[in-house]
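Hi R.,

As promised on Friday, here is the backbone we talked about, encoded as structure tokens. Could you run it through your design pipeline when you get a chance and send me back a sequence?
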């Protein structure tokens, strides 16, 4: 006599899925409060926006000057982060250098360091009387504080950790056996990195670059401390918003809407191109 077939676990699995999808009501209220806390300020910005005078506010030459400077400096800071951040991420992910944990902690320190403190630190190192700035001034006549280059450096200082963390995570997730296979076929380390590793970690580099660019675009504290607030030279959009709040709140709201639109576009692009899941 044939034994009856054991019951399939389809029904229990479906039940577990339904239970997992149920709303945990004890968490619903604090979750909604947290959502409102994050969303309502943005809604208030949209509600109080001077929509009737918005075209006039945005047509101001100062606005486009600040926006253009912000875009140029954020892009330059991202490029600087790519040049130095990708090799640094590779060093942290693929080598066993002494003190690697300490190096990683130092790399991520700007993430939690108050930006104003970062600006002060940059002044102490790269200012005219700084550790390195004194030598740059006397030997080459290069002065970095309160210049457009200073804005790029300040933004790169706070943005590069985002790129390093993203690329390091991508390198750790990439299978090193592909590089080993390329080495057995005669490829040098540089060729293997360029032809094998880079294509594997390209999504991580792209995501890190977008995050770094967005962080650089919104940087305020380190920029105003290290580079100042000079229209046309160091006044980026966040600094323009801060200045406008003192004399023309409607202009500040208009500038904030521009930054909000750029941030939403960046996050939407990041979600669709690099963080989408199947």
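Update: got your reply. Pasting your designed sequence below so it's all in one thread:
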């Amino acid at each position: 006599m044939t034994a009856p077939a054991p019951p399939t676990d389809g029904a229990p699995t479906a039940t577990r899925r339904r239970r997992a999808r149920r709303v945990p009501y004890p968490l619903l209220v604090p979750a909604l409060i947290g959502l409102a806390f994050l969303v309502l300020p943005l809604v208030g910005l949209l509600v109080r926006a001077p929509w009737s005078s918005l075209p006039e506010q945005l047509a101001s030459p100062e606005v486009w000057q600040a926006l253009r400077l912000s875009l140029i400096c954020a892009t330059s800071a991202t490029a600087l982060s790519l040049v130095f951040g990708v090799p640094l991420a590779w060093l942290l992910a693929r080598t066993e250098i002494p003190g690697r944990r300490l190096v990683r902690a130092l790399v991520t320190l700007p993430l939690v360091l108050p930006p104003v403190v970062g600006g002060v630190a940059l002044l102490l190192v790269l200012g005219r009387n700084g550790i390195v700035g004194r030598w740059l001034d006397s030997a080459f006549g290069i002065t970095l504080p309160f210049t457009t280059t200073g804005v790029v450096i300040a933004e790169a200082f706070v943005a590069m950790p985002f790129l390093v963390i993203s690329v390091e995570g991508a390198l750790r997730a990439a299978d090193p056996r592909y590089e080993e296979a390329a080495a057995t076929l005669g490829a040098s380390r540089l060729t293997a990195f360029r032809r094998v590793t880079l294509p594997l970690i390209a999504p991580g580099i792209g995501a890190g670059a977008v995050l770094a660019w967005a962080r650089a675009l919104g940087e305020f504290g380190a920029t105003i401390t290290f580079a100042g607030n000079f229209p046309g030279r160091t006044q980026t959009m966040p600094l323009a918003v801060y200045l406008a709040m003192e004399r023309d709140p409607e202009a500040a709201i208009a500038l904030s809407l521009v930054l909000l639109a750029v941030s939403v576009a960046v996050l939407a692009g990041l979600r669709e191109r690099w963080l989408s899941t199947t």
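One thing I noticed while checking it: The radius of gyration is 25 Å.

Thanks again,
M.
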